[in-house]
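4.2 Preliminary Data

To establish feasibility before requesting continued support, the project team ran the inverse folding procedure on a target of 332 residues. The structure was first converted into the token representation described in Section 3, and no sequence information of any kind was made available to the design step. The complete token record follows.
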């Protein structure tokens, strides 16, 4: 019998599931989450660890190789290490990663490593306390920097550090982040600001395109292009021509969409599958899980959902409509 796999109607295979473990976050990044009057999901709507494990086992059985835990802020979900330990034991899973804001990571990096986590990506949009505070509405830059250092001390590979570049906020720091990559050995990835923002204030003027970021870096350091790990990797990657440690990644979903090679599926904290960050529909897997459906039935639901995956986002089309959920409520 041929083992079914997750493949969409454009022959793209799904290899990567991003699992949001909570919609809650301890930061209030102005573009991602409101500062007040937030309506969090009711606790009982959030998938339990048993439900997340079941979905993960089913997707790995359908060919998914990589799981990434995200949120909200995944470190605020109680006993995340317990979930990681259980996920890390799934046979056939090659990579278990975490995306975090890094706050408090200093205390937990060792436990996350011991639990079986393979890699950590840390979001950090500024290396200046004041700007960091303006963006995140939290005064925790030092804790994030300590977290980055702690990942390496705990034996993780050099972290990816994700920086969303927003004109007039932190675009003056591109070269400083580049120096940070060279000093720490991290891979700093500059991400284009996407129209997924809280308050729907996004405006193309705020976007700093990948090309412009590269130009700014090369005013200080010459780069050489390096191969991506896989064709579906979102970042164009560069090393420093003078052989310094660290890498640079450019993620340009707006000016250089990579939908054609997309291998991703997302699971929201409240148990909805999303086939694209910009989907206007959720596919509720929670009700299938809570109805007590068999693994085969859950697998069938996933296969059918993936067949509905969009060809690509339509950010650059005149009919683009911004989805109601921001990254924090989807799982970035
Ligand atoms: N709390 C975790 C963190 O900070 O990494 C995980 C969730 S957060 C939503 C994941 C990533 O999405 C962060 O790097 C954040 O900067 C990014 N993000 C959120 N909204 C975005 C937008 N409109 N455009 C580009 N990146 C965005």
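Position-by-position output of the design step:
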């Amino acid at each position: 019998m041929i083992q079914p796999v997750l493949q969409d109607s454009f022959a793209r295979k799904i290899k990567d599931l991003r699992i949001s473990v909570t919609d809650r976050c301890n930061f209030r990044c102005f573009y991602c989450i409101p500062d007040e009057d937030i309506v969090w999901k009711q606790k009982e709507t959030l998938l339990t660890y048993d439900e997340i494990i079941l979905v993960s086992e089913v997707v790995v059985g359908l060919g998914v190789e990589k799981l990434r835990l995200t949120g909200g802020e995944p470190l605020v979900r109680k006993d995340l290490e317990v979930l990681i330990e259980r996920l890390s034991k799934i046979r056939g899973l090659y990579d278990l990663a975490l995306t975090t804001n890094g706050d408090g990571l200093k205390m937990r990096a060792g436990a996350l490593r011991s639990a079986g986590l393979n890699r950590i990506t840390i979001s950090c949009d500024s290396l200046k306390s004041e700007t960091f505070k303006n963006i995140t509405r939290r005064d925790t830059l030092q804790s994030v920097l300590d977290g980055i250092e702690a990942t390496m001390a705990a034996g993780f590979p050099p972290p990816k550090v994700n920086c969303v570049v927003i004109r007039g906020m932190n675009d003056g720091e591109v070269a400083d982040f580049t120096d940070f990559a060279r000093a720490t050995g991290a891979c700093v990835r500059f991400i284009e600001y996407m129209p997924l923002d809280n308050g729907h204030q996004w405006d193309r003027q705020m976007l700093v395109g990948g090309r412009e970021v590269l130009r700014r870096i090369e005013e200080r350091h010459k780069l050489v292009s390096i191969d991506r790990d896989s064709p579906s990797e979102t970042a164009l990657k560069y090393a420093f021509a003078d052989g310094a440690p660290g890498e640079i990644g450019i993620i340009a979903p707006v000016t250089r969409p990579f939908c054609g090679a997309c291998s991703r599926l997302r699971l929201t904290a409240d148990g909805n599958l999303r086939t694209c960050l910009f989907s206007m529909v959720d596919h509720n897997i929670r009700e299938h899980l809570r109805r007590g459906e068999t693994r085969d039935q859950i697998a069938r639901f996933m296969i059918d959902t993936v067949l509905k995956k969009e060809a690509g986002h339509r950010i650059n089309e005149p009919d683009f409509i911004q989805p109601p959920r921001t990254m924090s409520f989807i799982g970035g």
